[in-house]
């Protein structure tokens, strides 16, 4: 088998494609011939050694992948040869609340990731892929999709007619756009690019604001809601955006705290939090049960993930460079075509 591993020193240029012997299957193992992967901002941080303070030479990166089952262990009941499957971000978080033990099983972090042509995972760490999606589309779901679902549906309990503020046009935000529209919400989205905002409008965003041209986008959000404030913010910006997210929120509103793109230590206008009876909840992707619930919603509502660009398996380093450039809109995908690629 072929797999990518992190090099001795951090950096995209250090990523190495190497030959390795097949992983042992085990009784509950499922061997998957991989067809597609997607990148998350966290994977870029892992490769550059800026994620969680610990760089791990030799680690296989990436949490998100889709492939076809080619072999199953003797106790496997949920999958058979030929099934299309996707990896779960947390290998061992099946259901219920996150625990320290489950949190240590993030693919491409605490345990080896999936950027290899063949991967073995325990059956509890895989889900069936929605029939309505191609392999490339389905590969965008495990991290960004489940995070957006957890934030909007399970945590903020989004209702039809409510308003959602999304930050930027990256992976999480564009997955959230699809889910929010399917849930009947109205969406305002921010971006540094007017061209990206135009594309977001075509995908259903009702309101747009360029956060470079209009740094006080919290005011724009307030005006857009007629002075009421938004019901839900999907907060991926961190230090620079969180204070504005609080200001843009309605009474009883929800902020799903997800990312730290602009830094991790915000100066918080706390009075906004208590005086508005607002809720702020940390989101860390989600469980397999949440992934499966999202997949049913994707099929039923024909939600289509937004793919920015597709790279070949051999071009994985270029995919990381593309993410580093910040020019993407939606998800960056890596592809490896096989005979039955969908
Ligand atoms: N907690 C979790 O479970 C979880 C899960 C997934 C991701 N995350 C985190 O969420 C963040 C986003 O991840 P991702 O994979 O979606 O990243 P991504 O695809 O690389 O998206 C990044 C986008 O964010 C936008 N952005 C950058 N600075 C911004 C700012 N100041 N205000 C508003 N938008 C800004 C940019 O959009 P424009 O180009 O349109 O300006 C950029 O393209 C990262 O910090 C990541 O680590 C956390």
From TrEMBL:
Residues 11-334 form the Enoyl reductase (ER) domain. It comes from the Bacteria. One of its GO terms (molecular function) is oxidoreductase activity. PANTHER family: PTHR45033, ZINC-TYPE ALCOHOL DEHYDROGENASE-LIKE PROTEIN C1773.06C. This is Alcohol dehydrogenase.
């Amino acid at each position: 088998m072929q797999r990518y591993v992190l090099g001795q020193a951090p950096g995209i240029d250090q990523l190495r494609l190497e030959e390795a012997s097949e992983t042992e299957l085990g009784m509950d193992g499922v061997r998957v011939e991989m067809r597609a992967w997607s990148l998350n901002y966290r994977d870029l941080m892992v490769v550059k050694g800026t994620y969680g303070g610990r760089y791990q030479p030799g680690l296989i990166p990436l949490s998100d992948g889709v492939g076809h089952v080619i072999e199953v262990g003797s106790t496997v009941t949920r999958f058979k040869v030929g099934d299309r499957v996707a990896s779960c971000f947390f290998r061992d978080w099946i259901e219920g609340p996150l625990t320290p033990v489950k949190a240590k099983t993030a693919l491409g972090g605490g345990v080896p990731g999936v950027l290899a042509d063949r991967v073995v995972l325990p059956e509890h760490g895989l889900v069936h892929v929605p029939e309505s999606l191609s392999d490339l589309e389905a590969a965008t779901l495990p991290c960004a999709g489940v995070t957006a679902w957890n934030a909007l549906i399970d945590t903020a309990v989004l209702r039809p007619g409510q308003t959602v503020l999304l930050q930027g046009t990256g992976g999480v935000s564009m997955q959230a756009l699809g889910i929010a529209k399917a849930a009947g919400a109205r969406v305002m989205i921010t971006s540094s690019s007017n061209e990206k905002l135009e594309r977001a409008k075509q995908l259903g965003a009702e309101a747009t604001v360029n956060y470079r041209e209009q740094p006080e986008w919290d005011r724009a959000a307030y005006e857009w809601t007629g002075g009421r404030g938004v019901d839900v913010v999907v907060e991926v910006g961190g230090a620079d955006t969180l204070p504005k997210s609080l200001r843009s929120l309605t009474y009883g509103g929800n902020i799903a705290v997800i990312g730290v793109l602009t830094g991790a230590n915000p100066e918080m206008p706390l009075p906004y939090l208590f005086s508005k009876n607002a809720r702020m909840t940390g989101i860390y992707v989600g469980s397999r049960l949440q992934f499966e619930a999202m997949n049913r919603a994707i099929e039923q509502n024909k939600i289509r993930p937004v793919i920015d660009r597709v790279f070949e398996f051999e071009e994985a380093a270029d995919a990381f460079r593309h993410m580093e450039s910040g020019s993407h809109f939606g998800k960056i995908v890596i592809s490896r075509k096989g005979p039955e690629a969908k």
